[in-house]
C-alpha cells in the first residue's frame, strides 16, 4: 500500500510529530496519459513551513488530511503516457509519499547532466536555481564584490558560495558550528562566521568584512540581516531568499541598523525562484559548465525511510543538515 | 555683528537647547569672486539630526564650535562676483546664520518660477525633489497604483501626496492629529490615517487599503514601515527617504511583517536626493507645469528669528510643523 504524509493540524511555532500523520493512498488503475512513479528521493525545504499556515501566500497552504507535496525524484513503474516508459528517471512535485500517480504534464525527465539523480532536488534543482538567480539576477553580484551569505552550509547557501567564487567574488559565509564552517571553507569561502560561537554576528562580520559587503544573500533574517545592514557598502544589494529565523517564531525582527539603508542607498529585494523558471536553461548551461570544470561540490544529509520524513523536515530548523536535506525512500 | 548657530556637543537621543550656541561670525572684507548675502529664510530638515552624530555618512558631521550648515535663501548685499549684484535673490547652503560670505561657485540664483522665494527651501527645493524622484524614480509609482506615504503633512510627504495625485495614483497618507489629517485630505489624498488616534497603524492602514498598497514612501520607519509590509501587494516598491522614528532613538526597529517581502517580492530601496541633482531640470519642468495648473498647494510653519532656530529644528521631531518648517531671519 502506498503511503503519504499529511498535516493533521496547523502548527503554531515549531511543528512537532503530532502535526503529521502517515495516511494510506488508495490504489487505482492509471487513466490515459498518466504514469505511476516509485519515489526514491524526497525533498524537505524550509519554505514548506509557510505552507503549513493557513494564509494566502505564493504557494497555497497544505490541505489538512491530504497528502503533502514537495519535490521528488523517482522511477516510472507503469505508464499510459507516450512520453514515459517504465524505468525512466523523472522528477515531479508529488513528494512526501512513496508512490505518485500523475498526469504526464506534471512529470519531467531529469536534465541531461552527469550527476546523481538526487542532485536535481538540491544543487541542480530548485535550491540551486534559487542560489543562481538570487545571487546573479536579484542581487546582481559581479566580479570583485564582497558577498555575504547566511546559512552557507545549507542547500541554497552552499551553492551561493560556489557560484559567487566562480564569478570572482570575495565570499563570506555564516554557518553554525565548527564542522559546518570547515565545510563552507572547503567550498572556497574566503571567510566563515560561526554564528554559534557566542560572538554577535554583527561583530564577527565586521572582523572579516573590513571593506564592507556589496551583496547579502539572506536565508536567515534577524541578526544576520541586521549585521549585513551594519556593514553594507554604498549601493549594496540584498537578495532576500528566506528568513528561517522567523518561520517558527511570532517574535518581531529587531533591526538596529535599518536606517543605514538610506545613506548607503541599499536595495532589499525579496524573491521566489519560480519567477525565473522560464530561464532555467541559463542555469543548467552555467551549472553544467561548472560541473565539468569540477567547481561544484555538494553534500547531502540523508534521512532513511519515509517514516522519518517529519524528522528530516524539523531538522532543517535545528541545523540538522549540512548541504541538502533529503529523505531516501 | 553676524551670528551663526553652532553645535557645542554631540547629542545622544533628542537634542536640547544645551547642544546649541549662537556664535559671532568675524566680519571681513570680500575676496575676489565672493558675495555677501543677508539671509531671509533658513531651513531646518530632519536629516540634519544625522549630521550631529560623529559617524561617517553621506554628509559629514557638523564640526563642533563651527557654524552649522543648511539650506538658505537670501539677498546679495555686496558682491565681488560678475555673476551677482546687490539685490539678487539667491539660494545657498550656508544656513543656520543671518549673514553668509561665500565664493560665487557656492551661490545659485533662484529658479525662474512664480512662487515665494521660501518655496525653494521646501516644495520647489530639496524636499520637493526628494518627493519627486523618490516617488517616480525610486518607487516607480505609476497611474493606478495605491501609494501610502507617511508623515504626509510634512514638507516631503505633502509634496508626495500631490505629485502622486497628479500622476493618477490612489493616495493614502498618515499624519498626526485631526488638523494635519484634514490638511492632507485637502491636498487630494483619498484617505488619511491619524497615527495619533490610538489605532495601530497596521490596523488603520488595513481599513483604508482594502486592495493593498503598491508603493510606500517612507519618512518614518518603525510601525509605519511594518504596516506597509503587512499590506504590500505583489512587487510593491518602497522608497525609504527617512526614518524620523529612529533618528533620536537607540531602540531597534521591530518588524513583524518583514518576511512578507519574500512571497510578495517587495523591493525596499534607500535613497538620497543628491543622487538626482543632475536631473533637476525634469523636476522644475514638471513642478512648473503643476504650479501653473494650480495643482500644488503648500503650507509653511514659520518660526520667527534666528534666536529660535534650535526650537524650530526640535519641532520637527515633535510634530510641530505642518508643511515645511522654516526660520525667518
UniProtKB/TrEMBL annotation, chains A, B:
Keywords: Oxidoreductase. It comes from the Bacteria. Residues 13-327 form the Enoyl reductase (ER) domain. It holds the Pfam family ADH_zinc_N. CDD domains: PGDH (cd05288). This is NADP-dependent oxidoreductase. It comes from Sphingomonas kyungheensis.
Amino acid at each position: 500500500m502506498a503511503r503519504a504524509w499529511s498535516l493533521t493540524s496547523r502548527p503554531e511555532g515549531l511543528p512537532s510529530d503530532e502535526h503529521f500523520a502517515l495516511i494510506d493512498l488508495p490504489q487505482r488503475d492509471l487513466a490515459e496519459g498518466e504514469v505511476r512513479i516509485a519515489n526514491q528521493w524526497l525533498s524537505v525545504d524550509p519554505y514548506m513551513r509557510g505552507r503549513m499556515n493557513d494564509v494566502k501566500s505564493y504557494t497555497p497552504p497544505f490541505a489538512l488530511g491530504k497528502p503533502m507535496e514537495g519535490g521528488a525524484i523517482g522511477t516510472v513503474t507503469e505508464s499510459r503516457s507516450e512520453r514515459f516508459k517504465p524505468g525512466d528517471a523523472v522528477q515531479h512535485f508529488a513528494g512526501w509519499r512513496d508512490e505518485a500517480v500523475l498526469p504526464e504534464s506534471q512529470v519531467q525527465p531529469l536534465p541531461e547532466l552527469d550527476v546523481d539523480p538526487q542532485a536535481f532536488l538540491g544543487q541542480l534543482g530548485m535550491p540551486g536555481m534559487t542560489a543562481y538567480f538570487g545571487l546573479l539576477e536579484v542581487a546582481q553580484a559581479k566580479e570583485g564584490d564582497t558577498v555575504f551569505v547566511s546559512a552557507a552550509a545549507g542547500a541554497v547557501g552552499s551553492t551561493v558560495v560556489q557560484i559567487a567564487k566562480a564569478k570572482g567574488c570575495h565570499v563570506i559565509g555564516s554557518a553554525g558550528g565548527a564542522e559546518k564552517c570547515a565545510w563552507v571553507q572547503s567550498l572556497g569561502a574566503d571567510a566563515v562566521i560561526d554564528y554559534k560561537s557566542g560572538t554577535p554576528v554583527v561583530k564577527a562580520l565586521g572582523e572579516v568584512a573590513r571593506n564592507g559587503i556589496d551583496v547579502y544573500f539572506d536565508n536567515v533574517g534577524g541578526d544576520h540581516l541586521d549585521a549585513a545592514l551594519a556593514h553594507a557598502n554604498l549601493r549594496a544589494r540584498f537578495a532576500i531568499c528566506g528568513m528561517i529565523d522567523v518561520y517558527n517564531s511570532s517574535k518581531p525582527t529587531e533591526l538596529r541598523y535599518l536606517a543605514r539603508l538610506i545613506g548607503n542607498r541599499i536595495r532589499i529585494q525579496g524573491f521566489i525562484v519560480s519567477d525565473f523558471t522560464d530561464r532555467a536553461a541559463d542555469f543548467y548551461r552555467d551549472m553544467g559548465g561548472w560541473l565539468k570544470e569540477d567547481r561544484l561540490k555538494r553534500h547531502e544529509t540523508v534521512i532513511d525511510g519515509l517514516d522519518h520524513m517529519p524528522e528530516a523536515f524539523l531538522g532543517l530548523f535545528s541545523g540538522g543538515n549540512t548541504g541538502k536535506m533529503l529523505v531516501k525512500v
